[in-house]
Amino acid sequence: MGHDVLERLKKRLADWLGITRLNHAVSFVLMRDVNVLSSAPKGAEGHAALRAAFLHLIDLLKPDVVCDIGALDGSLSLAVRDKAPNCEVIAFEANPKTHARHREALSAHGIDYRNLAVSDSDGRITVHAPRGQHEGKTSLLLRNEEMAYDDYEVETHTLDSLFRNRLDARDQSFFLWIDVEGAAERVLAGASGILYQTLAVFIECETFPFWQKGGSADGVADTLLKAGFVPVARDREYGDKQFNVLFVAGRVAHLLAPSLFNANSPLRKGLISSPTRDKSVAYTELGTLSPLPVVRRD
Q: Which residues in 148-183 are b (16+ Cβ under 10 Å) and which e?
């Protein structure tokens, strides 16, 4: 039986059993809760809480490998190294100048810090660093505004090719931190295999077109929902234009329960709105905010 025929049969069965409608309803509830009812305040405070939640999940789920994609100075990698000394930490930074600046310090802490771009293909690729701006803005994409760039041709690989020898290894689990300035969907497109061994994904998303041919938050959510992940929490680092979302593999989501009942848990703090946030405003926003739209999974 051909793959297409099998997929059509699965879809019809899901429709007949009501699974498709249930999936849509669950997607809506998850997106509503993450985006409106328990969302973080804008700015650095909410981002720090979400980062702490990600690090807390390392304690809870104990991954074998943490990949820091778009690592810049490797601050996240260093925090992971402090949290889990025995965990393998691999950091990827495409900007060669940035990599050269931080390589020695990160290597001294046992971090595998590589100068390459993670994308949806293998080979060579050009990355663009906006001239005169923070080097953290380096991207595979050009921005939707006039500016000069310093361009670098670098090696690029997909996550699946980088970890080809570990695919389907039952004793290998991954955490992914993805901060790639508009190119998150490209990273995910090259990670269909490794996602099935991944327990948590911290990923930067956008709803505003900062980059030419950039991805979108709903595209990121669609890919991860289809791969079996559920959104747990988000920040509003730059409001609802650019923000980060923490996804957890559905098969391990039940392990988060103890932290959700612990008022002092970093995970719970990452879920709860600022005490000063007006809840009546939050409910009003339900009809106006959609930074992570409900997606179709049928």
A: ebeebebebbbbbebbeebeeeeebbbbbbbbbbbb
